[in-house]
């Protein structure tokens, strides 16, 4: 099967983008990362991508008068790269409903909580505040509402009594780096499909492997 062409959109560090790039190097991975786009020209992830000789594009949102004009150029860049799927990885810009609709069921995002709990910013603080004993991350199809949309994959990690937002974030981030490539592979291979507003997985994923490597 032809590999799906993926654009990864970032705003900062880009560790999830790096995990996707690493996974996509496997010959049998069903997707290739054809471009990395950042709305912040100084994003460390963009520097990393350039160093790896990936197509790395800066689209400084501050240079645009409106969200729509920014998205017009973004769309242009995606079309030029002949992109099939968009993976948001720490991309800190809200998209307009029109743009989200254009990429319906072809744009995915990772959020560092077990959605639908703890949407938005300061998720780790929210989880600690609520006193949950299990936290985690979610990869989902993007819908106009922030941090909502059909869930493709989740991974769980324990919350420890001594956790700070930083220690919890670090534990969850490790899980993100496993679950995001897994979810992208499911979508790119066509094994994860939206049926209504839920995702059906055509083939059993080895959840044990995903969870095991993330809880340790
Ligand atoms: C991750 O925790 C991701 O879930 C959230 O923003 C963070 C981005 O980290 N949306 P990185 O840029 O991928 O390192």
What does this structure look like?
The protein has 216 residues and is an alpha/beta fold. It folds into 2 domains: 1-103, 3-Layer(aba) Sandwich (Rossmann fold), CATH 3.40.50; 111-216, Rossmann fold (3-Layer(aba) Sandwich), CATH 3.40.50. It is 37% helix and 24% strand. It has helices at 15-24, 44-51, 67-80, 97-102, 123-130, 165-188, 207-215, and strands spanning 4-10, 31-38, 56-58, 85-88, 107-111, 134-141, 151-158, 192-195, 198-201. The strands form 2 sheets. The protein has a 7-stranded mixed β-sheet with strand order 3-2-1-4-5-6-7, sandwiched between helices. The protein has a two-stranded antiparallel sheet with strand order 8-9. A hairpin with a 2-residue loop joins strand 8 (192-195) and strand 9. Residues 212-216 have low confidence and may be disordered. The structure holds 5-O-phosphono-beta-D-ribofuranosylamine (GRF). 5-O-phosphono-beta-D-ribofuranosylamine is lined by residues 10, 12-16, 45, 89-90, 110-112, 173, 176. The site of 5-O-phosphono-beta-D-ribofuranosylamine (GRF) has 14 residues, from helix 1, strand 5 and helix 6.
What's a quick, concise take on this entry?
The protein has 216 residues and is of the alpha/beta class.
């Amino acid at each position: 099967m032809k590999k799906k062409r993926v654009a990864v959109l970032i705003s900062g560090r880009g560790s999830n983008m790096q995990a996707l790039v690493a996974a996509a190097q496997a010959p049998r991975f069903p997707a290739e990362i054809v471009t990395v786009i950042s709305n912040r020209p100084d994003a460390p992830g963009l520097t990393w991508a350039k160093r790896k000789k990936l197509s790395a594009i800066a689209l400084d949102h501050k240079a645009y008068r409106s969200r729509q004009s920014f998205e017009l150029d973004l769309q242009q860049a995606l079309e030029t790269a002949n992109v099939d799927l968009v993976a948001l990885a720490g991309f800190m810009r809200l998209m307009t409903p029109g743009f989200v609709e254009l990429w319906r069921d072809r744009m995915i995002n990772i959020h560092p909580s077990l959605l639908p709990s703890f949407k938005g910013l300061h998720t780790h603080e929210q989880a600690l505040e609520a006193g949950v004993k299990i936290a985690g991350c979610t990869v989902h199809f993007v819908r106009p509402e922030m941090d909502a949309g059909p869930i493709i994959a989740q991974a769980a990690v324990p919350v420890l009594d001594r956790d700070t937002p930083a220690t919890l974030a670090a534990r969850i981030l490790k899980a993100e780096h496993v679950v995001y490539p897994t979810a992208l592979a499911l979508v790119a291979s066509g094994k994860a499909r939206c049926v209504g507003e839920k995702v059906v997985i055509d083939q059993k994923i080895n959840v044990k492997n995903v969870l095991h490597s993330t809880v340790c």
